[in-house]
Amino acid sequence: MKVKGIWKIPDDAEKPIDGRITSGEYTTSMEPKVLKALPIGISDYARAQSQYYYVDKTLMIKEFLDQKPLVSLFTRPRRFGKTLNMDMLRTFFEISDEDTSKYFVGTNIWKCGKTYRDHQGKYPVIFITFKDVKKDTWDKTLNHIIQIITSEYKRHTELANSEKILDKDYYDMVIAGTTDKNLFDSSLYMLSKMLHEHYGVAPVVIIDEYDTPIQQGHTLGFYDEVILFMRNLFSGVLKDNKHLSYGFLTGILRVAKESIFSGLNNLTINSILENKYSEYFGFTPDEVREMAVYYSAEDKYDELCKWYDGYLFGNSEIFNPWSVINYFRNDCQPRAYWQATGSNEIIGEVLSGIDEEITFKLNKLIQGETIVSAIDTGVIYPQVKNNPSSVFSFLLVAGYLKSMKSSIAAVSYTHLRAHETRGNL
């Protein structure tokens, strides 16, 4: 209205909402960036991929499908993402009531096309991890293994009322806990058979950290018992089994064929000396740079290299993933994160029996020099004590030494150096 020639807005006039601040305080419409949490100790792929910062390793699936080896063994040091990668394989291949493709849409494997996507969610899966089987007697160890396998039976509730399986009584006995534990070494074979009968598709079998109970047996005096059981368990489900689509195993040591994989001629071994799959366990330099940019720590890359870039898997330069993740989580404070994650009983045993020559070579390694040594990636635990020269094979596959270059012949000779990483010495 106009008052004495001047236009004024009535006090009771309804004012339009224009977003202006009337409090006198200045605010910005830019919200702070919410960073994804770091996956400390997360081995569930779906959770890691959807809720945390996830380094995409899904091209491992493509590399596998391009070759389709029947049974694959991956040996890597502890805390290098073995369990997470195996759960990724389970989530990708497993038939599920949930549409699990959502955990792969946008990932590298999904971008590879229909040929690879067609395998997603098409197989029953048996998934077993022995990473926590660390008991002090064989009886306790066997009981723990039986509990793990029984839990896997219970996970497959579709078998409870299936009219297609021929061994329903065996399934019911396992669930009820009335199976003779001395006959439990055929349990994985029986589960593979029942899943094949139910679905009409043979299952994928994944056995994670298979050698943890074996290491316990060696350290605590029941090695022979655990080896006998594991040989029968693995042979039944992985050797000449028509109820198997593919098999995967992970561990730290290969454990020589004659001790546990006897007669398993379909086994493809992927050790730290092999080029295949070399970039899928641990972080590559590009992946670490990308993570540093994401967490606004680009200037810390050189420090990360000094501390945690001490591995060479095949021809791939690899960072210790456990240490890198903990480095960012702890405000970029460099520490020996990996060193505190495992038991060193075997290392103590290895070093207790060395001779003067081995001691001389170890001192050279500590001084940052390189040595040349014959390497057997199939080293077995008893050999560590009886053959002191196997110390370098064990320290290499366990993650304490770095292979500089190798010559593969009847015997593999490898140039070795201690990790140039203060965090892992």
Write down the overall geometry: globular
Helicity level:
25-40%
Overall pLDDT metric: 86
Main-sheet strand order equals 4-5-6-3-7
Write a structural description.
- The chain has 425 residues and is of the alpha/beta class.
- 37% of the residues lie in helices and 13% in strands.
- The chain is built from 16 helices and twelve strands.
- The chain has helices at residues 45-51, 59-67, 82-93, 114-117, 138-155, 168-176, 187-199, 212-220, 223-238, 285-294, 301-308, 321-329, 345-352, 356-366, 381-386, 391-397, and strands at 2-3, 6-7, 71-75, 125-129, 204-208, 246-251, 267-270, 311-313, 316-318, 371-375, 401-407, 412-418.
- The protein has a five-stranded parallel β-sheet, with helices on both faces.
- Strand 11 (401-407) and strand 12 (412-418) form a beta hairpin.
- Helix 7 packs parallel to helix 9 (223-238) and helix 8 packs antiparallel against helix 9 (223-238).
- The relative contact order is 0.11.
- Mean pLDDT is 86; it is low at 420-425.
List the helices and strands and how they pair.
Blueprint: E1 2-3, E2 6-7, H1 45-51, H2 59-67, E3 71-75, H3 82-93, H4 114-117, E4 125-129, H5 138-155, H6 168-176, H7 187-199, E5 204-208, H8 212-220, H9 223-238, E6 246-251, E7 267-270, H10 285-294, H11 301-308, E8 311-313, E9 316-318, H12 321-329, H13 345-352, H14 356-366, E10 371-375, H15 381-386, H16 391-397, E11 401-407, E12 412-418
Parallel strand pairs: 3-6, 3-7, 4-5, 5-6
Antiparallel strand pairs: 1-2, 8-9, 10-12, 11-12
